[in-house]
UniProtKB/TrEMBL annotation:
This is Ribokinase. Belongs to the carbohydrate kinase PfkB family. Ribokinase subfamily. The lineage of its organism: Bacteria, Pseudomonadati, Pseudomonadota, Alphaproteobacteria, Hyphomicrobiales. It is found in: Cytoplasm. K(+) binds at D243, V245, A279, K282, G284, S288.
């Protein structure tokens, strides 16, 4: 079983020919809303990959709440650990440029009211061998409690270091598996501007210190990871991206699902990388997450 403890948002998405520079206004050419939130995205990805998934988090008592949960509900995700609190559901304001790159501002809303007690509740029904997935769009003290409770119960924890927060290097060491993009990994390693040899050296050093499995996503260059002392690589697909929103979350959810299914590490990386590539071919976070059969077909 996979439990995702994290954020649930509504995404408000505007598309432009190019992203604006600071202080600049550019004309938009499209607008859409879509369910999002890193936690919800990852939960939906794991569910679409075919695994049984609990979503733990919070939504508000507003008009966005039902829509934010709709795709999770339709997919058969267990929502019994989602609480409804006074105030707004979390929102993400997203600008997508013509090249598929994006800028995002996240307003926590109900996500900011997730507590350490909620973490205890989420972990309460889990047993040794289950998988817990977390991110940093809910308060850090709740993430820390969840990681500690998971370790005490023998639950495998997967922490995605996004969005980057000051406590990320410290909390990262509490997880069994850490997933980061290039920028997040540089913060974890305390070193900026890494080239490939420097990244491999940092992976080796951190792995020797902590024994953790460390995974770094590299966009179009695939993924590099270290586990049990060995460095692994995997490639996604060669694509022309439409929208990269949700690609990292798709990778995380599919990776967790692959481990839960019993795939070996190399196969889990490859499957997740392909799924992340496919997520770039459609707009929006959750609407772009591919279904398991489509990922298998492309592999």
């Amino acid at each position: 079983m996979i439990t995702v403890f994290g954020s649930i948002n509504m995404d408000l998405i505007a598309t432009t020919e190019r992203l604006p520079k600071p202080g600049e206004t550019v004309a938009g050419n499209g607008f859409a809303t879509a369910a999002g939130g890193k936690g919800a995205n990852q939960a939906l990805a794991a569910r679409r990959a075919g695994r049984y998934v609990h979503m733990a988090g919070a939504v508000g008592k507003d008009s966005f709440a039902a829509d934010a949960l709709a795709l999770l509900d339709d997919a058969g995700t267990d929502l019994s650990l989602v609480k409804h609190v006074d105030g707004p559901t979390g929102t993400a304001l997203i600008l997508v440029g013509g090249d598929g790159e994006n800028m995002i501002a996240v307003v926590p809303g109900a996500n900011g009211l997730v507590t350490p007690n909620d973490a205890e509740t989420a972990i309460g029904g889990m047993t040794e061998g289950d998988i817990l997935m977390l991110q940093f769009e809910v308060p850090a003290d709740a993430v820390e409690r969840a990681l500690s409770a998971a370790r005490a119960k023998g639950v495998t924890s997967i922490l995605n270091l996004a969005p980057l927060i000051p406590d990320a290097p410290r909390l990262g060491r509490l997880a069994d598996i850490v997933i980061a993009n290039e920028t997040e990994f540089e913060r974890l390693a305390g070193q900026d501007g890494m080239d490939t040899p420097a990244r491999e050296a940092a992976l080796t050093r951190l792995h020797a210190e902590t024994g953790q499995t460390l995974i770094v996503t590299l966009g179009g260059d695939g993924v590099i990871a270290i586990r049990d002392g060995a460095i692994s690589r995997a490639q996604g697909l060669k694509i022309e991206p439409v929208d990269t929103v949700g690609a990292g979350d798709t990778f995380c959810g599919y990776f967790a699902a692959s481990l839960d299914e019993g795939l070996d590490f190399a196969s889990a990386l490859r499957r997740a990388a392909v799924a992340g590539s496919l997520a770039c071919l459609k707009s929006g976070a959750q609407p772009s997450i591919p279904r398991g059969e489509d990922v298998v077909a492309r592999i």
